[in-house]
Specification:
There is one protein chain. By secondary structure, this protein is an alpha+beta fold. The protein has helices at about 40, 45-55, 80-95, and strands spanning about 5-10, 15-25, 30-35, 65-70. The protein has one domain (about 5-95): Ribosomal Protein S5, domain 2 (2-Layer Sandwich).
Amino acid sequence: MHSKLFSAATIGVNAKLVQVEVDISNGLVNFYIVGLPDTAIRESSKRILAAVKNSGFRVPAKRIVVNLAPADLKKEGTLFDLPIAIGIIIKLMRNKN
């Protein structure tokens, strides 16, 4: 089961709802962000993993897939770093139990 959070993207002065879905599974060790992310979001994996690790969580050597939906909405900036990190922490806490 994946973890799902809600965030928002701004388009001009309007906000659009964005679902942040995180899945951690066995497979080739990698961090994927899908759903039309810009360069800043694609590069956020290192910032996010460092923040999660420095928060006292052990990030497993597994495949992490983050989906930002809807896919047709361009996501820009570092706005999604926190919801992605929280989604990873939720998933790690569920796997502990």
